Amino acid sequence: MLPGEQSLPEVIVSPDGHVVNNLFLYRCKQSDQALARQVNEDFMSLQIYWFKNRRQQLVCPRCSSLNLIRKGWRNRVLMSSRGRLRLKVLQSRCKVCGRTFRPFNGWAGIPSSRRFLEELVEKAVTLGTQFSFSRSAKTLKLLTSGAISPEGIRRKVADDANRISLPQSTAAQTVLVDATKVKAGRKQRGEPVYLAVTAERGPQKHGRPTCIKNLIHLHVGDAAPVKKRLQAIRPDYLVHDGGENLTDCAKNVQRCRWHLTHQLKHYLWQDQVPHALRPAFQKRVRSILADRMKGPSRYKRFTDNLMALGYEKTASHLHGAANEAFTYVKEQGFTYIDTSPLEREMRELNRRADIGSRWSPKGLENVLKVLFHRRLNNRSKGQT
Ligand SMILES: [Zn+2]
User: Fold this and answer.
1) Terminal-to-terminal C-alpha distance of the chain
2) Does position 293 have pLDDT exceeding 60, yes or no?
3) From edge to edge, which strands make up the β-sheet containing 68-80?
4) What is the rounded distance in angstroms from the CA atom of residue 302 to the CA atom of residue 32?
5) How far, in Å, is the centroid of ligand 1 from the Cα of 59?
6) How far apart (Å, rounded) are the C-alpha atoms in residues 12 and 23?
7) Residue 259: C-alpha distances to residues 65, 124, 227, 266, 292 (Å)
8) Average pLDDT over residues 151-170
9) CA 66 to centroid of ligand 1, rounded, Å
10) φ, ψ for residue 64 (rounded to 5)?
11) Domain residues of the chain, as ranges?
12) Which of 36, 186, 244, 371 is the most buried (most CB within 10 A)?
C-alpha cells in the first residue's frame, strides 16, 4: 500500500479500473453522514435557543401552565433523500401536572406522524404522478439515498390530492370541458374522466402562440360532479365536447367546433352514408361553422336537407347542437371556440392512465388531480 492510500478503505484502490468512481461513492456516503450530523447539531441549537427565547409562547398542552422545564432529548429518525436523519428532539415537562411533551414538533414541521422529510415526499409524489408507484419507488431508491414503498407513495399522492383546492372563480374566462374513457372501475368499458380548465391566450413564445390553462375540475366517474361544479362556478363562457348537456352550466355555452365536425362521421356511418362521401359532409359543416355572417341560416338549411335525404341521425346530431353552434358570434368573450388546448392535456392524461391494468376510480383520480394541478396551476413547481 502506498503512503497516500492509507486513509482510504482498500476496496477503493482495488485494481478494477474504477478508482475515481469508488472514491466518489465513498465520499458521498461520508458527506451524507456529515450532513446528517450537522443538521442534527443545528436543530439542537435551534431548539435550545427557542426554549430560552420563546418561553412565554410555550404552554402545557394538558393544563395550560407556563411553568415548564427542559427534560432531556428524544430520538427521532426521519428519512431524507440523503439518507436517514437522526435528530434529537427537545422534551419539556410541566411542573404543575407532570406532563412530558415535545414543544417544538409543530414549529419544526415534524409532527410525530411524520416519517419522511417533505423534500423526499415531494420527489416521491412527483415520480408517482409520472409512472407506476412501484417504478416510482424503485426510481426514488436508485436516484436518492432515501426510500418510500410503493404503497407509501400511493398514500402520499392521495394525501396531496386531498389537500388540493382548485380555483373557485372563473370570471370572464373561457372554460373548456372534455372527457375521455379510462380503464378504471368495474365496467368493462371503463369510466370517463372529466377535465375542466380555464384557457387564456398567453404571450408568444419562439414565435408561437401559447395558452395559459388552469385546472378547475377533474374527476373519474359520471357527469354529475362536473355539472354540479360548473353550476356552482357558473362560468361566463363554456366550450364543451357535446358529450353531456351542459346548457344550464354557464352563461354562454359554445359547442366545440372540432368535436361537432368530428362526431359527424359516426352519425353518417349510422345513416349508412358511404365512407368515401363522409369527408365532404364534414368539410361542409366545418365551413358553415366558420361562417360568422350566414353560418346560422346555412346550418339550418343544411340540417333540413340532411333530414330530407333521410339522414336522420346526422340531422338530429346537428339539430341538437344548433343552439350552441354559433354562440361565439353573438358573444365576443370566448378565447377559444374549440377544446383543442385540452388535447395535449388529454394525451398526458391517457399516458399516465394507461398502465395495462385496471385502476380504482379514486386512485386514478388522485394521481391525475395531483398531476394536472401541478402541471397547470402550480407553474413554478410542476410545469413540464
Ligand atoms: Zn401541565
Assistant:
1) 51
2) yes
3) 68-80, 83-94, 100-101
4) 73
5) 8
6) 6
7) 67, 37, 19, 11, 18
8) 92
9) 8
10) 65, 15
11) 3-114, 120-163, 170-252+356-384, 257-337
12) 371
- Cα 95 to middle of ligand 1, angstroms: 7
Q: Which amino acid is at 280?
A: A
Q: What is the mean pLDDT of residues 29-40?
A: 96
Q: What is the DSSP string of 19-34?
A: HHHHHHHHHHHHHHHH
Ligand 1 center–CA 91 separation, angstroms: 13
pLDDT above 60 (res 380): no
Q: Which three cell numbers stand for residue 370?
A: 395531483
Q: Taking each helix axis from N to C terminus, what angle separates 150-163 and 361-372, rounded to the nearest 10 degrees?
A: 70
CA of 77 to the centre of ligand 1 (A): 27
Report how far ligand 1's centroid is from the alpha carbon of 103 (Å). Answer: 12
> Contact, 9 vs 26, CB < 8 A?
yes
90 CA → ligand 1 middle, Å? 17
Condensed to tens digits (0 to 9), the pLDDT of residues 113-151 reads: 899 999 999 999 999 999 899 999 999 999 999 999 999
CA dist 49 and 54 (Å) reads 8
Beta-carbon contacts of residue 224 (< 8 Å; ≥ 6 apart): none
- The stretch 183-196 carries a mean pLDDT of 90
Span from the CA of 55 to the centroid of ligand 1 (angstroms):
15
How do residues 54-64 score in pLDDT, each as one tens digit?
Answer: 888 899 999 99
